[in-house]
Amino acid sequence: MDKYSSRRVIREAVNLGSDYAxxxxxxxxxxxxxxxxxxxxxxxxxxxEMLENGYFEEEFSERRAEFSRQGLAQxxxxxxxxxxxxxxxxxxxxxxxxxxxVRFCPINSLGYCISGVHLCVHGDVCLQxxxxxxxxxxxxxxLVAFKFMFGRTRRVTPVTPKDMAIIAPSPxxxxxxxxxxxxxxDSLSDQYLRxxxxxxxxxxxxxxxxxxxRQCSPLAALYLRRRRGSGVPPKPxxxxxxxxxxxxxxxxxxxxxxxxxxxPSIPSMPPPAVMMSMSGLISAASTQAQxxxxxxxxxxxxxxx
Length: 305
What we know:
Pfam families: DUF3715. The protein has about 300 residues and is an alpha+beta fold. Helices cover about 30% and strands about 25% of the residues. The strands form 3 sheets. Strands 1-2-10-5-3-12-11 form a 7-stranded mixed β-sheet, with helices on both faces. A 4-stranded mixed β-sheet has the order 4-9-8-6. A two-stranded parallel sheet has the order 7-13. The longest helix is centred in the first third of the chain and has 16 residues. The chain starts with 8 loop residues before the first strand and ends with a strand.
C-alpha cells in the first residue's frame, strides 16, 4: 500500500446548499475573468463532489510553512483557486488519489510539462475552453477545483508549438505566469493562454523537479451542464456571509465525519497512463516505445529570460 492509498480518501457528492458547496461555488464565480452572467446564463451547477485526501492537506501545510520560513510575502502565501477540465470520471478519481502530477502532455506554454503542472486561474475561461474543445453543446463539463499558492513567481513569454521551444523551471522561483494579463476583449484562446499558471517544485539543490508540486491540492469536482433554451433567467448564486473563500477546516471535518459511516464511493483505479489536454485531462495509451519516440522529438529547452 503506497502513501496515497494509506490515508482515508473521500469523494462524495454534497448538498448544493451546504456550506462546503456554497463556498466552493463562490470561489469558482469569484475567479471569473468575464462578467458572471456570461457563464451563469449558459451553465448551471448540477452536482458538486467533495474531494478530500489527508496526505495532500498535510503536504500543502508543510509547503506553506517552508514558504514562510523562506521569507515569502503574504500575497505569495495566499491561497487561490485553480481549475482543470476532466474528460472522465476515472480522471477525476485519479486526480483525487494522486494529485496533479507532471506528465507528458501537449501543454508546455509556460514550462516543460514533465517538470511542472499547469492550472487555469479563471474558472469561466477554463469552462469555455473545455466546451469549445469537446464541441458537445448541451453536454456536461466536469471541472476539478484546486487550491494552490503561487509562491515566488516569474513572468515569462508563453511559447506555442510552432516555436519549437520549451521553458525550463526557473531556480529560485516556484511558479511561472504569463507576461501579459488576460483581458475581456481577448479571444478565448488568448484568454486561456494568459490565464495559466505553471507550478513546480525542486527536490534538492540539483534542481530535480518533483512529480507533484505540494503547493497544489485538489478540492472538489464541479459538474456543470449547459442550459437549454428555457427562456427563464437563472437565479444569481446565493453566497454565505463569510470572509473566507475556502471551506474551513471545521466545515470540511464536519462533512467528512457525516460521510465516514458510508463506504467512500471511489471506483477502481484507472490505467496509470494519463495525459493532459489544453482544457484539462485526457486519457492516453503510454508505452515505452511511445515515450522513447516523444523523447527523441523533444524541442529545444530554454531558460526563462
